[in-house]
């Protein structure tokens, strides 16, 4: 199919620059991309007939890592002030 309709995993390294230039980086395009990614994740890991806890646990693990990274800078600055 056309290069703009291919998923990222099917794009060759030499075609990557051209593929990125065909992407829509407007707020509406980015919102559509996020919605498409969420629907794909939901269909693959959460909304399955014999699903286990893997989809929700991956989501929780991602949230934990993200919240830790947000709070790490705050803790790092606090410790530096306290001991120096």
UniProtKB/TrEMBL annotation:
Pfam families: WRW (PF10206). Keywords: ATP synthesis, CF(0), Hydrogen ion transport, Ion transport, Membrane, Mitochondrion, Transmembrane, Transmembrane helix, Transport. GO terms for cellular component: mitochondrial membrane; proton-transporting ATP synthase complex. The chain crosses the membrane at residues 54-72. One of its GO terms (molecular function) is proton-transporting ATP synthase activity, rotational mechanism. It is found in: Mitochondrion membrane. The keyword Ion transport applies. One of its GO terms (biological process) is proton motive force-driven mitochondrial ATP synthesis. Belongs to the ATPase F chain family. This is ATPK synthase. The lineage of its organism: Eukaryota, Metazoa, Chordata, Craniata, Vertebrata.
